[in-house]
Amino acid sequence: MSNYKIILSGGGTGGHIYPAIAIANELKSRYPKAEFLFVGAKDKMEMEKVPQAGYAIEGLWISGIQRKLTLKNLSFPFKLLSSLLRSRKILKQFKPDVAIGTGGFASGPLLQMAASNGVPSLIQEQNSYPGITNKLLSKKADKICVAYDNLERFFPKDKIIKTGNPVREDLLDVSNKSIEGKNHFKVKHNKTVLLVLGGSLGSRRINQLIESKLDFFQTQNVEVIWQCGKLYYNEYKKYNNQEGIQVHAFLNDMSLAYGAADVIISRAGASSVSELCIVGKPVIFIPSPNVAEDHQTKNAKAIVDKDGALLIKESDLDVDFENTFSTLIQSENKRKELGNNIKKLALVNATKDIANEIEKLLKK
């Protein structure tokens, strides 16, 4: 049987959406007749990104609980009940053979309902510190694919399989895309190209940093490809008039962006870290301090401790940034060393290994 029905849920940020799309693409290559359906949160970016990738998506009325007391939390029980009922209806109509969750608000109700209705389920945890949704779902899921060691503190040990995080297939040959990438972004081949990534939604602190250092970058002979995020584009697009600076709300072709880059500044969300290991370029991580259990710092430290990247805390940027950056720019050996070391940490078969685990569930 190859006309399986496969339901996937994950969203809120690119870190949950792109792994789900990568898994779907791998399964589709194995089972061209399979039918796929995504389930996301109604007003989140997955409602745009999933159809762009060629898949159908249904939206749930769901959002997370705010960590601080707020009126928004009053609507949460109603949203949860609505999403559980909607998920049950979707499952009844679609009749999936397997359910896959990659984290984010919407995957909670869907995977909960799937497991309650006897649908085999797999969750994929990207972080070194799991989110609340996956912690709750782990009790009922059949398998849990993880990217870091020591997660038996949070999940049943007998369900854990270490696979790494799925990444987009086109990133596997980024090293051959340097010229194509630089041409695509029209950057000068004799200058150092800095790629700035603040996560799929953008980062206010990284954007403020880059804005304050534009003159400094010029003195360093650096051109900047700056993904500022959709929320911040109107604020920063004025710098597109400045030579050697280009501001993008979102970069749709990441493989060419990574290809063009000589140095990368990035947040340390789990998916970004996994991608950067495969890309194998020198990275300065600036972890977001505003996440559960400071897990971005933990993600980054796993790389930094093996001499695979540099890390600057947000609180140290004003003091440390220029010195760290210029030292890196001026040392080709250091850049090579960081690029080689981070590449050694890549789990390049993650998507295939996760698909293998899903296949086992399908064949049961």
Can you summarize this structure?
This protein is α/β, with parallel strands linked by helices and 364 residues long.
CATH topology of the largest domain: Rossmann fold
In the CATH scheme, the class of the largest domain would be Alpha Beta
Q: What fraction, in percent, of the residue positions are helical?
A: 40-55%
DSSP helix count? 15
Task: List the secondary-structure elements in sequence, H or E.
Answer: EHEHEHEHEHEEHEHHEHEHEHEHEHHH
- What class would the helix/strand composition place it in? alpha/beta
What's the N-to-C terminus distance? 12 Å
The strands making up the biggest β-sheet line up spatially as 3-2-1-4-5-6-7
Give the CA-based shape: globular
Mean pLDDT: 91
**How many domains make up the 3D coordinates?**
2
Radius of gyration: 21 Å
Total strand count, please? 13
- Main beta sheet: 7 strands, parallel
Please describe the topology of this protein:
Elements: E1 5-9, H1 14-30, E2 35-41, H2 46-52, E3 56-60, H3 76-94, E4 98-101, H4 107-116, E5 121-125, H5 132-137, E6 143-146, E7 160-162, H6 178-184, E8 192-197, H7 204-212, H8 214-219, E9 222-227, H9 233-236, E10 245-248, H10 254-260, E11 263-266, H11 270-279, E12 283-285, H12 295-304, E13 310-311, H13 317-330, H14 332-344, H15 350-363
Parallel strand pairs: 1-2, 1-4, 2-3, 4-5, 5-6, 6-7, 8-9, 8-11, 9-10, 11-12, 12-13
Helix pairs in contact: 1-15, 3-4, 6-10, 11-14
Describe this structure in words.
The longest helix is centred in the first third of the chain and has 19 residues. This protein is α/β, with parallel strands linked by helices and 364 residues long. It has two domains: 176 residues, 3-Layer(aba) Sandwich (Rossmann fold), CATH 3.40.50; 176 residues, 3-Layer(aba) Sandwich (Rossmann fold). Helix content is 42%, strand content 16%.
